[in-house]
Every structure is written in C-alpha cells, then in structure tokens.
Amino acid sequence: MSETVRIGDRDVGRGCPVYFIAEIGINHNGDVALAKRLIGAAASAGCDAVKFQKRTVDVVYSAEELSRPRENPFGETNGDLKHGLEFERDAYEEIDEFCRSLELPWLASCWDEESVDFIDVFDPPCYKIASASLTDDELLRHTRSKGKPILLSTGMSSLEQIEHAVHVLGTDDLVVMHTTSTYPSQPEELNLRVIPSLEQRFDVPVGYSGHEVGLYTTLAAVVLGARIVERHITLDRAMWGSDQAASVEPQGLARLVKDVHAVEAALGDGVKRVYDSELPVMQKLRRVGL
C-alpha cells in the first residue's frame, strides 16, 4: 500500500485511526444558523471534519434545468431551489470562523472550477470530488492544481471510469471513496467488498461514503478496510430536504463514531499474541504446556 495521505494534521491510511467526516451537504436548507447547529453536533459526536457542497449554479445547471417547475421553500422552479440552497461568501466566512472556534476542519465538494477557486480562499485541508463530477477531467485537473489531497467519490461510476479519473489525478495524496449514489441506499446495493479490491487495484487509501439507513453497514466498511468514513448528518431525518432521509441524527452519529473507533481497536494488527490478561486464565486452566 502507498504512503499515508496527510489531511490537515492527521495521517490517513493503514495503521492510522479512521478519519470521520460528517457530510452536511445541503442539509442546512440554506440557513447558516442550521448549518452551525449541524457543525456543533458533528463536533460533539467526535467527528474529525465536516463537509459542504459548493456549486456555481448557473454553470453547473442548464437554463432549461433551472427553469423546470419544482415547488420548494424558495420558489416555484428548480433554479429557485438551487440558488436558495447555495451559500455565498459571507455565509462561508461565518462557517469558517465557527469551525475554527471548535477546531474542526471543514471542506467541500466543488462541482465546478469557479467553486474550487471560491473554496480555496478558505484553505481547506483537502477537496472532495463528488461522484457526479468523476468524469469531468477539467474539474479534476483544476482541483489537483490546488496542491491539496483529494477524496474521489466513485458512486454511479464503472471501474473503467474510476481508472480514468485516477489516471487524470495521479495517486499522490489521493483517497478513493467507495459509495453508492442512491439516497437512501439499499443494503444489497452497497457492495462493500469493493473496498479492499479498490485498495488493491490503486494502492491508495480507500474510504467509504455511506447513504444508507442504519449504522451497522458502516462498521462493516471499516472491517473491510475503509480509512475514511463519511456519513450525512441531520438534526431530524423527517426535515424537508432530499438528503435528510439518508442522513444520521446527532445521537446516532455519536454512537457511530464511538463504535467505529471500538471496531478498529478490536481489529488489532493481525499479529497473534498472548496477552498479559490471559496469563492467569492460562495458569488456572491448562494442565500442560505452561
């Protein structure tokens, strides 16, 4: 396996603690106060970072798509919704200040080159390439030009498409994130055994970005070798928003972070040994071979 990837002040890779990202995404519903509540909940749960999404709406979406009728809290069209969910400079300045006060790093999935430049001003520890952007070579190259580690999400992508994206990005400071891009994902479509196969093929750390309901499958991803875990966070899964149902509420997130670290401790290093705690039991129960 390749060298570990340095994200902020943490190493990510084999032998390192799992790096846990709480994906806020668009679950803030365009409200900075709600975003800060989600950040606080992620910090309290013990997460290592939070993540947002950044788009230049008129670049990412066509005029036809933006004019499509779609009733939402911000208006009557899909464009009203997309613009309503998008934070601008003043909002991210407030988010950045709040995250710094909690000593909690934040990053973003940037869907276009202008958004990469926008987020770069805040000096994120790394960038995330969204699954929808995996085939956008120009965006991949522009993101790589910033000189930061990259998390490459691989949902709705074939192995050939992933191989091409890795070729474009190179394997230095790269983490490949296994994911299934349905919200919520069904357990039978998670295909978690892809995690070790991706690690073997690309010789880079592999993470897991989960959109399923429940927690146990994320623990299985860690058992199979996920070095980064990302799950969406929400204050209430019944809230308005397309990603809320595929998210984890604060109490569940705190439990998941705790269980992830318990599982990785239980996995050990694979070297068989006799523990000191076993010696009294051995002396008590073995008849021969002491």
What does this structure look like?
With 290 residues, the protein is α/β, with parallel strands linked by helices. The protein has a single domain (5-285), classed as Aldolase class I (TIM Barrel, Alpha-Beta Barrel). Helix content is 39%, strand content 19%. The protein is built from 12 helices and 12 strands. The protein has helices spanning 32-45, 57-60, 63-66, 78-84, 89-102, 113-120, 137-144, 159-169, 194-202, 216-223, 250-267, 279-285, and strands spanning 5-7, 10-12, 19-25, 49-54, 69-72, 75-77, 106-110, 127-129, 150-153, 174-179, 206-210, 228-232. The strands form 3 sheets. The protein has an 8-stranded parallel β-sheet. A two-stranded antiparallel sheet has the order 1-2. It has a two-stranded antiparallel ribbon with strand order 5-6. Helix 9 links the parallel strand 10 and strand 11 (206-210). It is globular, with a radius of gyration of 21 Å.
Entry keywords:
single chain; alpha/beta; TIM Barrel; two-stranded antiparallel ribbon; 39% helix
